[in-house]
């Protein structure tokens, strides 16, 4: 049985990320299936390089059309740290570490960035980027979300990501923006 | 012309690392050549995984017997941070960032670790690990060396790595230990 042309596989171990992306895909008439695969991540300061490498590896090893997603939290006053290593930094230092590093640092601007990379076997990957600009708070607020959400307030708002419901957060979400860009492009080229 | 069996290529962009390793190799009667190649680094908390992946990639792409080296600085009171991402963390936060994170942290134990991975084309890599235990100082001292050297005192010593001459530092060096292990093994199997 051949699959309909509008099917794509999202390689992720995170079921919540898959659910969020599949909802966006459905709104464009696309079918997104979950491929529970540990993506191979390279070290780079560029999320597009990381996502492209992972998408290409997964497409070659499975023979399927694949999307992967990679995200990072970039704090301007810390030279972009923790950037592409946000998960590792969160696991070792937590948001407490970022607040400690920002003690007496005047510039508290920050950026969440997500890159979605799409790759078909034997093809080059295409990347789609979503960003949310904002600032780092002086102390953590809220208990929703995960990672650095309790210390990040998106521009034009007074609440941290962790003080918002998932529905409201998704209006701003870097990840939702990147997946929406991808879905528009993917739907238009069929 | 076929190369003597005792030749191995060290894939690194760092000429100083190559020079140090070549000296150790020569003392075991081995010829180590410099292959100026950017190694492909994966994200992992395990230096052996990172070095193995890079050695295998380089061996497959060049058809040669390759060694690569990967190192990290692991601070116990920070959950092992910065670990495998030490270069990135040094470039963004410097040793100042590590001192700031350790403010009021009682446990200042730390560890430098180096892993040398050797791989022949179509073979599995072999890994050799060198470690130096010590403590993180309260302030930076000395101007030799690089990276986190000014804030690390190896066990049994009172001076930081940055206060030592390169010759003295190499008596303790994690990198020298890992290369010495590799060279012993490589010389014995010829």
Question: Summed up, what is this model?
Answer:
The structure is a homodimer of 190-residue chains. By secondary structure, chain A is of the alpha/beta class.
Q: Kindly report the CATH topology of chain A.
A: Maf protein
Number of H- or I-type helical stretches of chain A: 5
Extended strand count of chain A? 7
Which pair has the most extensive contact?
Answer: A-B, 22 and 22 residues
**Biggest sheet statistics of chain A:** 7 strands, mixed
Mean pLDDT across the residues of chain A is 91
Strand content of chain A: 15-25%
Q: What does the overall shape of chain A look like?
A: globular
Low-confidence stretches of chain A: none
**CATH architecture name of chain A:** Alpha-Beta Complex
Oligomer: homodimer
Secondary-structure blueprint:
Two copies of one chain form a homodimer.
Chain A (H helix, E strand, L loop, with lengths): L6 E5 L3 H13 L3 E5 L11 H16 L3 E10 L6 E2 L2 H16 L7 E11 L6 E11 L15 E3 L11 H7 L1 H15 L2
Parallel strand pairs in A: 1-2, 1-3
Antiparallel strand pairs in A: 3-4, 3-5, 5-6, 6-7
Helix pairs in contact in A: 1-5
């Amino acid at each position: 049985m051949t699959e309909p042309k509008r099917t794509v596989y999202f390689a992720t171990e995170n079921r919540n990320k898959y659910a969020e992306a599949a909802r966006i895909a459905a709104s464009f008439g696309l079918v997104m299936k979950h491929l529970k695969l540990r993506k191979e991540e390279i070290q780079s300061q560029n999320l597009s390089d990381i996502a492209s490498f992972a998408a290409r590896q997964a497409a070659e090893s499975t023979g399927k059309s694949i999307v992967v997603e990679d995200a990072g939290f970039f704090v301007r006053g810390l030279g972009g740290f923790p950037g592409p290593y946000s998960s590792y930094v969160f696991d070792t230092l937590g948001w407490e570490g970022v607040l400690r590093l920002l003690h007496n640092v005047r510039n508290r601007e920050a950026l969440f960035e997500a890159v979605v990379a799409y790759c078909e076997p034997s093809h080059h990957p295409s990347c789609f980027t979503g960003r949310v600009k904002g600032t780092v708070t002086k102390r953590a607020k809220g208990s929703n979300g995960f990672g650095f959400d309790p210390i990040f307030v998106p521009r034009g708002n007074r609440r941290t990501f962790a003080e918002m419901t998932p529905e409201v957060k998704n209006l701003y979400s870097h990840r939702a923006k990147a997946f929406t860009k991808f879905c528009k492009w993917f739907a238009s080229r069929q």
